[in-house]
């Protein structure tokens, strides 16, 4: 059986819907409440590679902290990743991760791509 992890925020409706889809499909997922257990810089880089996107594309750009930190004009990928490590609220959710691939669950049905 495939190993699957979900970066989950229980307060987010999309994240809850994604978890519900996994449960409906009887997928045993490792649920990581990423606001409490922040992914490391290496984990974020690994997920970015699996998603094949830039750091900014994994960020919640409408969050107040994004504006407060002045990240709109930041072009350094390392600094954007560091900002997510220091402020996990900036990480888009949910993210479903397998050994080879990852997907952002927006809309939640998008997670079916990795199952």
How would you describe this protein?
This protein has one domain (4-114): 3-Layer(aba) Sandwich (Glutaredoxin), CATH 3.40.30. The radius of gyration is 14 Å and the shape is globular. With 115 residues, it is α+β, with helices and mostly antiparallel strands. Strand 3 and strand 4 (102-104) form a beta hairpin. The protein has helices at residues 13-24, 41-51, 64-68, 77-86, and strands at 4-8, 29-33, 95-97, 102-104.
Summarize the structure.
The chain is of the alpha+beta class.
Give the C-level CATH assignment: Alpha Beta
Number of helices: 4
Shape: globular
- Per DSSP, what share of the residues sits in E-state strands of 2 or more residues? 5-15%
CATH-defined architecture = 3-Layer(aba) Sandwich
Query: How big is the Rg?
Result: 14 Å
Largest sheet: 4 strands, mixed
N-to-C order of helices and strands: EHEHHHEE
Low-confidence stretches: none
What is the distance, rounded to the nearest whole angstrom, between the alpha carbons of the first and last residues? 11 Å
Task: Write down how many β-strands occur, each being a DSSP E stretch of 2 or more residues.
Answer: 4
Return the CATH topology.
Glutaredoxin
Mean pLDDT: 96
Widest beta sheet: strand line-up: 2-1-3-4
What is the subunit arrangement here? single chain
Domain module tally = 1
Helix content: 25-40%
- The CATH homologous superfamily is termed Glutaredoxin
Q: What is the structural class?
A: alpha+beta
């Amino acid at each position: 059986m495939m190993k699957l992890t979900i970066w989950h925020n229980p307060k987010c409706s999309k994240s809850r819907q994604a978890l519900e889809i996994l449960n409906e499909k009887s997928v045993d997922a490792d649920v990581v409440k990423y606001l409490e257990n922040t992914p490391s810089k290496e984990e974020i880089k690994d997920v970015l590679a699996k998603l094949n996107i830039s750091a900014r594309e994994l960020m919640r750009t409408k969050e107040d902290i994004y504006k407060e930190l002045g990240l709109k004009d930041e072009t350094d990928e390392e600094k954007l990743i560091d900002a997510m490590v220091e402020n996990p609220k900036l990480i888009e959710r949910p993210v479903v991760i397998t050994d080879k691939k990852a997907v952002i669950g927006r809309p939640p049905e998008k997670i079916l791509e990795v199952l």
